[in-house]
Amino acid sequence: METVPERLGRTPVMMDVARAAGVSQKTVSRVINDAPHVRADVRARVLAAVRELGYRPNTAARALVTQRTHVIGAIAVGTRYYGPATRLLSIEHAVRARGYSLAINSTPDPWIDDLHGAVEALLRRGAEGIILEVPSVDVRLDTDLLRDLPVVSNVGPLPGVRHVAFLDEDQADVGRVAARHLLDLGHTRLAHVAGPQRWDAAVSRRLGWQGELEAAGHDGSLVLEGDWSARSGYALGLELARTGATGLFVANDSMAMGVVRALVESGVAVPEDVSVVGVDDVPEAEFQVIPLTTIRLDQTRSTERALHDLVAMIEGEQPLDQAGDPPPLLVPRRSSGPPPAGRP
């Protein structure tokens, strides 16, 4: 079947839409730019002609006229890992829902700390606001580039940047939830496999864990540091198999899976001898040979709120009231249970 562009012998332009809808080019432009004061029947007729002709507005020309690109830039570090990758997907959906497009500058490298080039690249693509999904506030940023630009940051305030919204969950509460779960099961010999301490989230989870244990009168000093990978979890699990700890909080599910394998290969039964709790509720967690108890974070709510605030800064709207996000959710499965008899 011949398409409209094939029948025309060229790509449809705005004049074709105006002729098909029986309106002026100015009216077509107002409809495409979602301007007010266009009658509903006229708007419907224009949109029907747009669909029938397969017309696509020239975004470059539109940006020249409106001085707007409707582009939001995102810098994401460590996207090889589940947490940053799912956050980036959540950001993409939220940006699209607000009528913007997303320009991404991402790296799987979790240790990159100079983001000057990434910011410049996004600004060259016309970003009207920037989202920083980075491991730590210590990353190097030329704040002069961002001084008057709306920014969403997952690592708190940025010195010299005037318009900042925050994108974060209460990472310390993740550690508190894990500690309460293991304490409620009766464990007193406890250890933590932390994420890399260059990551703010890893530090906050450790501090929340240790604070909850200390408030309950228990020692939280046994902490081993991993790098978020299952391989590091496996190596640390071999060490933990010799410590006598019966309750382990592991800062993400990937490391937790490595820990469980190391424990089982060392002759330590999970959960009969040692309970293991992870974080993220990755899709594979439920389907391990020993299904993994984990803590799930609701990234959608915090992302939608932060994106609303970013667009509000861009467009001069009111930000949302900063209502709290849902608390981290414990998802209990078979990898956690009471301590072995006589060894709390």
From TrEMBL:
* Domain of life the protein comes from: Bacteria
Give start-end of the signal peptide.
none
Q: Which UniProt keywords apply?
A: DNA-binding, Transcription, Transcription regulation
One GO term in the molecular function aspect is: DNA-binding transcription factor activity
Identify the residues that the record assigns to the HTH lacI-type domain, covering every copy: 12-66
> Where are the annotated coiled coils located?
none
Is the keyword tRNA-binding in the record?
Answer: no
Is this entry keyworded Transcription? Answer: yes
Q: Which Pfam families match?
A: LacI, Peripla_BP_3
Disordered: where is this region? 317-344
UniProt protein name? DNA-binding transcriptional regulator, LacI/PurR family
Q: Which organism is it from?
A: Friedmanniella luteola
Q: Taxonomically, what lineage is the organism?
A: Bacteria, Bacillati, Actinomycetota, Actinomycetes, Propionibacteriales
